[in-house]
Specification:
CATH superfamily: Electron Transport, Fmn-binding Protein, Chain A
Number of domains: 1
Distance between the termini: 40 Å
Strand order of the largest sheet: 2-1-5-8-9-4-3
Structural class: alpha+beta
Number of helices: 5
CATH class: Mainly Beta
Order of helices and strands: HEEEEHEHHEEEHEEE
Number of strands: 11
Radius of gyration: 17 Å
Length: 184
């Protein structure tokens, strides 16, 4: 009935959050972007997001130095660009310029927003206790920007090994969420 699936591929089943672009600006003033699929909501208030950013990522240094970043949420029309951003390093190029993306000043952090993305979440490190052991940073969302004029709102989700899914039809069951109504 069931087939075996390798434990090291758990992310292909459980990673359902959208791909994001992590925007940073180092103390040298250089802005950078990286593609990230390993993140998770940790709590509502304050809004905490766990992200995996290791020393192998060029953005790691800027995040550690400044303690802040922007999580930019692209929609499906940027899918190929998002993958390409993840396949090169910011230590050899200006990714905003190379990929034709627009850096926009944020309000609460030094890292830029990405104009072409549907949403941008300004974040500061809230907890880095697990960063040396698991490369896990806990970010507190400071401010969120949404482009409500953007027609395309379908997000892309990494399923591992270069496979992606795209948001489809939504179903609205908020009336059934009686236990969690205070969060709406």
């Amino acid at each position: 009935m069931f087939d075996h699936f390798p434990a090291e591929k758990a992310h292909r089943i459980l990673e359902s959050g959208p791909i994001v672009l992590v925007s940073t600006r180092g103390v040298d003033g250089q802005a950078n972007l990286m593609t990230m699929g390993f993140h998770m909501m940790m709590q509502h208030e304050p809004a905490l997001v766990g992200v995996i950013i290791g020393p192998w990522d060029h953005s790691h240094r800027a995040l550690v130095e400044t303690g802040e970043c922007v999580l930019a949420v692209p929609t499906v029309e940027l899918a190929e660009t998002v993958v390409d951003i993840g396949n090169c390093s910011g230590d050899t190029m200006d990714k905003f310029q190379h990929f034709g993306l627009t850096a926009v000043a944020a309000e609460t952090v030094g890292a830029p927003l990405v104009r072409e993305c549907w949403a941008n979440l300004e974040c500061r490190i809230s907890d880095s206790e697990w960063s040396s052991r698991y490369n896990l940073f806990v970010l507190e969302v400071q401010r969120i920007w949404i482009d409500n004029e953007k027609e395309e709102k379908r997000l892309i989700h990494h399923q591992g090994d270069g496979r992606f899914s795209v948001d489809g039809e939504q179903i609205d069951l908020h009336q059934r969420m009686v236990k969690w109504r205070y969060l709406m």
